[in-house]
Design a protein that fits this description.
Chain A is of the alpha/beta class. Chain A has two domains: 10-15 and 270-369, Aspartate Aminotransferase, domain 1 (Alpha-Beta Complex); 21-265, Aspartate Aminotransferase, domain 2, CATH 3.40.640.10. Chain A has helices spanning 21-27, 37-54, 68-79, 93-104, 122-131, 153-162, 182-185, 211-218, 231-238, 252-268, 270-289, 317-328, 355-369, and strands at residues 10-12, 60-64, 85-90, 108-113, 137-141, 143-144, 149-150, 166-170, 189-191, 205-209, 306-310, 330-334, 343-347.
Chain lengths: 372, 372
């Protein structure tokens, strides 16, 4: 067995995205102890920077030591108790995963379904809330990575609050890529990943809980089933002050990477980052439309960072993706579920949202599809 | 907020251990997609190398995408169903954590307790098995990181098998540091961490399940509560063949690090690695004993990789650790629980198990304690 030297790819799939050399270098810095005072200082900075990225003052804002799926599970495992009724909005893969979380935890999932590629319907959620006055939580995906659709998190959270429900919001693909304001929008619990628009390596899931969510968490009648994800315990390590209680060993070097990516986000400015994603999306859109390639999602609900486009008729889509990967070192994503074989998913996330990536992608597709 | 440049430490605590520059460099290699064919080739190599490290032919041998605590939870969440009786051996912090896992999952924990610093008692476990013929699992810690004691995993597993029980074994600190033979000893389910004797950065937990454990897993009457840790799903991604189903985004760069550390383990040879840990332990022991510092654990049950030693009388132990850290950039560990303030834990794990580290540690302690 030899050392592994990965090929150098351009990552324009649904994540992971290209990781900036500064972030890669940070990953290689010397490992130190997870209770080292120097490390605890870095943890505090990371929390502050995540508050900025999420636009929140929530004290409980921190990175979970595992991928986005574990961040999702952290929200559900801490906030859903057996018997709790949860309104789960499904308009793609990740809404389905939310439902799985609810039912495995013994909760009752009330499903609000929308077509893949469409935003979560405000009216349907309102109807479900009226029909289920005992619902305790509304859960939905802000940016559906499987379809590229954005839902109106602000309106949905206001609606949930009117009906005295907490909200759990999936922001895996939205954080740092398009507008997201946790406090202004009244989001109660939210999770994301590092490998999308933050462009840090995968393996960490930033979460944030407000006071309403913490109230629910600290007033549970049953213990959290997961010891690893129990925020009552995790906060002993990620909480305030110099004294931290050992809970688990933090992924030290991956946190170096996240920290560096957050330094870069602060250097650029959050709104500038949102604008850059939008500008590159417009560039990609123009290029693809010039080739007759259209979008799954209507323009108003489209995510700039995840472009789901129809595959031209008569094309062997897997062969195109193979050619992009093998001949151009360029990764784009396949469709999931019912969309498999019908769409490609082209990511413009974080450091991947660059003019040079857009030009490469459009030019390579033109060559392969032999469009002059 | 500035880039974080950690101090360069020598890590001789209970983990993380020193990470070799080759492994750190591997962490900084370009991120590629978690479904990239090149990445899947690396996954297969990693699984094979873990089988070597564990001395097993178990097909289900793979790294969980989260720290050792999540590896523990993977074993319990997949193998314990509500109502299952589990014999949990407690002789330190991590046995207690096992009990937490069992009870949160709705299992019934039968506790076999031994003094901290002593090995798990074969006789007590036998007694518990006789008194609980309906017990389904015996769980114990092979190498207790909180005390530095080794328990006789071979004898305990044989005993459990006689009573038709599965075993769950914590090998977080033993893997690659001292003798461990999963197949020969009949261990059914085992978990470890990367940041101890493998000397890769923290954040990953290698596990292995044999056919008996898989039989229990696939014949559950209830779904696994955790979606993220459900091995029925995870195996769709880490399983055989070129086609892998997306489950979660793997921690790509941390896996590069683990892969490189496994390449280095294979270069050295597993038994040579065990012998190196033992040789450096002997060196440390001689140095400490020359200063009148003695061990908590009796010689026969002592782990070479985790040396728990009594703090000399009249010493401000926290001040000594601070001086080691601030004046020598050397980290050693404090005592946990009842041992806090009474012992230090000096790790000789993986790349930390080197003659130069031992000499530094002994010399620095001599200077601080002013022993001539």
């Amino acid at each position: 067995m030899q050392s592994f030297n990965p090929p150098v790819r351009t990552l324009m799939g649904p994540g992971p995205s290209d990781v900036h050399p500064r972030v890669l270098q940070a990953m290689a810095r010397p490992t130190i102890g997870h209770l080292d005072p120097a490390f605890i200082g870095m943890m505090d900075e990371t929390k502050e920077a995540l508050k900025y990225a999420y636009q929140t003052e929530n004290e409980l804002t921190m990175p979970v030591s595992a991928p986005g799926s574990a961040g999702m599970e952290t929200c559900f495992a801490n906030l859903v108790e057996p018997g709790d009724k949860v309104i789960v909005c499904i308009n793609g893969v990740f809404g389905n995963r939310m439902k799985e979380n609810v039912t495995r935890l013994g909760g009752e999932a009330v499903i609000v379904e929308d077509k893949w590629g469409e935003a979560v319907s405000f009216d349907k959620v309102e109807q479900a809330l009226k029909e289920n006055p005992d619902a305790k939580i509304v859960a939905f995906v802000h940016a559906e990575t499987s379809t590229g659709v954005a839902s109106d998190a602000k309106a949905l959270c206001a609606l949930a609050q009117q009906h005295d429900c907490l909200t759990i919001v999936d922001a895996v693909t939205s954080l740092a890529g398009s507008e997201l304001r946790v406090d202004d929008w009244g989001i109660d619990a939210i999770y994301s990943g590092t490998q999308k628009c933050l462009s840090a390596p995968p393996g960490i899931s930033p979460i944030s809980f407000n006071e309403r969510a913490i109230h629910k968490l600290t007033n549970r009648k049953t213990p959290v089933t997961s010891w690893f994800l129990d925020l009552n315990l995790v906060m002993g390590y990620w909480g305030k002050g110099a004294k931290r209680a050992y809970h688990h060993t933090a992924p030290v070097n991956t946190l170096y990477g996240l920290h560096e990516s957050l330094v870069m986000l602060m250097e650029e400015g959050l709104e500038n980052s949102w604008a850059r994603h939008q500008a590159n999306h417009q560039l990609l859109k123009a290029g693809l439309e010039s080739m007759g390639i259209g979008f799954l999602v209507n323009e108003a609900d489209r995510l700039p960072q995840l472009n789901t486009v129809f595959i031209p008729d008569g094309i062997d889509e897997a062969a195109v993706r193979s050619s992009l990967l093998n001949d151009y070192n360029l990764e784009i994503g396949a469709g999931l579920g019912d969309l498999a074989g019908k769409v490609w998913r082209i990511g413009l996330m974080g450091y991947s949202a660059r003019r040079e990536n857009v030009l490469l992608c459009v030019s390579a597709l033109k060559e392969i599809l032999a469009i002059k």
